[in-house]
Design goal:
- The complex is a heterodimer of chains A (321) and B (290).
- By secondary structure, chain A is mainly α.
- Chain A starts with a helix and ends with a helix.
- Chain A is 75% helix and 0% strand.
- Chain A is built from 13 helices and no strands.
- Chain B is mainly α.
- Chain B has a single domain (3-125, 139-279), classed as ABC transporter involved in vitamin B12 uptake, BtuC, CATH 1.10.3470.
- Chain B has a two-stranded antiparallel sheet with strand order 1-2.
- The longest helix of chain B has 33 residues, at 3-35.
- The relative contact order of chain B is 0.20.
- Classes of the chains: A mainly alpha (321), B mainly alpha (290).
- The A-B interface holds A 35, 37, 39, 89, 92-93, 95-100, 102-104, 106-108, 110-111, 114, 117-118, 229, 233, 236-237, 240, 277-278, 281-282, 284-285, 287-289, 291-292, 295-296, 299, 321 and B 32, 37-38, 40, 86, 89-90, 93-97, 99-101, 103-108, 110-112, 114-115, 118-119, 221, 224-225, 228, 232, 261, 263-264, 266-267, 269-270, 273-274, 277-278, 281, 289-290.
Chain lengths: 321, 290
């Protein structure tokens, strides 16, 4: 029994690592490739989760949809919806320095939170949407956990292969050129704004997909399912610790940070009640401190971005912006 | 609707809220213009200032207004400390790295508040304050204090920036950092002064939000968007622009209830922000665009 519990916990953790790794990969396209600061990850995540829920749940009274379509359509819809939300924001903010995008993305996450809370027709309000079909969910409990893990890993590997291909492809090299020296890239005739918009939208789509995977795993999505600030911040620390600009780093970071995060949760849950609440916030403080320490002492992360050509010249080139 | 009713229920609360935003927006606009990055921990620093004032009020039993200077000084010191410990060594890196660090600082400052003061809603004073009647305009004393303090603090800051040597040095750094450094301005002192001013104003902003509404650990984070909208609306780097922007955002938020559902009040600041970026990114008073 004890052993089964452990296996179950490991499966649970692995599924979450897979979902967070997808978010970190999405952020890597935005930040690692293109240098775009997105502080609204939780917003795109939520858009994906709710879109997929609306598309794939059976029809329900009192709210929009329940279209009862195949979950794959839901996931595709989640990606499209997240991309559609990202488009106007990117269109307006990407003409300026990334600081403006940072503020606007905080704003869009906030607006999405408001819409989820106050449009029950769309999201069923505080009760959220339940009865979301889970792929391979009608077999035994353990088997369905394993099956879902395999599905998550398959999606993650597909995303990884696609993104990694782009890293050395002309598109990826161009994106890094824009990130490291915008003026030079512009002088070479690259359409900087449009390319940044591409990166922002692709990244947002992956975040939407992550949200959809989360919703189908839980079979339900509610406004309180994730704390927006914590989720956004966790994805950032995953990418920075793992190594921004490196896709394997993003996945490694997701695994390391999620293991630290959930193991520390077990530790704090064992504390007496009066300390447990405070311990929760101390964990948040420490995760913030972790970012500061990584930024200071190992800004390139655990797995640094692979540089092509002469390492020394390439490195000084990257530091000069 | 009658004019008086409009003034009493929407415009006066709007001006008060706007003054609170203005205090924070001035700090944001100074940091944006002089240090050249968006400081995302600004709202949570305001929360900290408000709670420091609460600590003084509960410990000494003094009136909240007496606690305000203490909170201003303490928060300014915290801001300088944060800069020294966490931001200073990032100065040579791309500015956006500091933006990221400030997001982490926001989380850290907030969790300190949550650990020390808890997550429950608190107030400076108990009981209901009835507004006084001024020719039909119903105004509470604390609302007068808020607007007066804002005018006083920003007026003083404006005098400092235009008349004193260090104020001029700050403006020079904002206008042309290379030229300012060449002419021998001490960058470290300018940075420190900027943080003292921004931190102090932050505390005032959080304090007055707490005085007019209530103290919550998330209060500052929710002010971040309106404060940035105000700074950009007024023009980045323009102190008087930040005040104007703050007042407009505050009044617009209160008036928005007349046309859109009140749940979406907070969306008003975001709409103003996007609109300005789309139409006139330099802001009303021709600030800079980074």
């Amino acid at each position: 029994m004890e052993f089964l519990g452990l296996v179950n916990y490991a499966l649970f953790m692995a599924i979450f690592i897979g979902i967070y790794a997808l978010l970190a990969l999405g952020l890597n396209i935005q930040w690692g490739f293109a240098g775009l600061f997105n502080a609204g990850i939780a917003g795109f995540f939520a858009v994906g989760a709710y879109t997929s829920a609306i598309i794939s749940t059976p029809p329900a009274d009192g709210r929009f949809g329940g279209f009862d379509l195949h979950f794959v359509l839901g996931w595709i819809g989640a990606m499209l919806a997240a991309a559609l939300v990202a488009w106007p924001i990117g269109k307006i903010c990407l003409r300026f320095r990334s600081d403006y995008l940072a503020i606007a993305s905080i704003g869009i996450a906030e607006i999405i939170r408001l819409v989820i809370k106050s449009e029950p027709v769309l999201t069923n309000g505080a009760r959220g949407i339940s009865n979301i079909p889970r792929p391979a969910g009608d077999i035994g409990y353990m088997e369905s956990q394993v099956a879902y893990l395999i599905i998550v890993l398959a999606v993650l590997i597909a995303a990884y292969v696609l993104v990694e291909r782009q890293f050395n492809a002309p598109w990826g090299r161009m994106m890094r050129a824009i990130r490291d020296n915008e003026d030079a890239a512009k002088a070479m005739g690259k359409d900087v704004e449009f390319r940044r918009l591409e990166a922002f939208i692709f990244g947002a789509a992956l975040m939407g997909l992550g949200g959809a995977l989360f919703a189908h795993f839980n079979r339900a999505i509610t406004p309180e399912a994730i704390d927006p600030m914590v989720a956004t911040f966790l994805v950032w620390i995953m990418l920075i610790l793992g190594g921004s600009g490196n896709n394997r780093g993003a996945i490694l970071g997701a695994a390391v940070v999620w293991i630290i995060w959930s193991v520390s949760e077990i530790a704090t849950d064992r504390l007496p009640h009066e300390y447990a609440v405070q311990a929760k916030y101390i964990r948040l403080f420490l995760i913030g401190l972790m970012l500061q320490l990584v930024l200071r002492f190992r800004p390139e992360g655990l797995l640094p971005e692979p540089l092509r050509g002469d390492q020394r010249t390439a490195k000084t080139g990257a530091d000069q912006n | 609707m009658e004019l008086l009713e409009l003034l009493n229920f929407y415009v006066i609360p709007g001006i008060v809220l706007g003054s609170i935003y203005a205090l924070g927006a001035v700090g944001i606009t100074l940091i944006f213009a002089i240090l050249r990055y968006a400081h995302l921990a600004h709202g949570d620093l305001a929360t900290l200032g408000a709670f420091i004032a609460l600590a003084v009020v509960t410990a000494l039993g003094v009136s909240p207004l007496v606690a305000l200077p203490v909170a201003i000084i303490a928060t300014a010191a915290v801001a300088v400390g944060i800069d020294k410990v966490f931001y200073e060594h990032l100065r040579e890196r791309p500015k956006i790295v500091t933006v990221m660090a400030s997001l982490g600082i926001a989380l850290m400052v907030r969790s300190v508040v949550q650990v020390v003061w808890g997550v429950d809603t608190q107030t400076y004073t108990r009981g209901i304050v009835r507004p006084e009647d001024y020719f039909g305009l119903r105004i509470r004393d604390r609302e007068l204090y808020t607007v007066a303090a804002m005018l006083l603090l920003v007026g003083g800051l404006q005098l400092f920036l235009t008349r004193s040597k260090w104020g001029k040095a700050m403006r020079a750094m904002s206008d042309n950092p290379n030229l300012a450094l060449l002419s021998g301005i001490d960058n470290k002192k300018v940075v420190m002064l900027t943080w003292i001013i921004a931190g102090g104003l932050c505390a005032a902003s959080g304090f007055f939000l707490g005085l007019n509404t209530e103290l919550k650990s998330m209060m500052g984070w929710h002010m971040l968007l309106p404060m940035f909208a105000a700074a950009i609306l007024g023009g980045v780097g323009r102190v008087e622009g930040a005040v104007l922007g703050g007042l407009i955002v505050g009044i617009a938020e209160e008036l928005s209830v007349l046309v859109i559902p009140s749940e979406y009040k907070a969306a008003m600041a975001f709409a103003i922000l996007l609109f300005m970026l789309l139409v006139r990114p330099t802001g009303l008073l021709k600030g800079k665009v980074l």
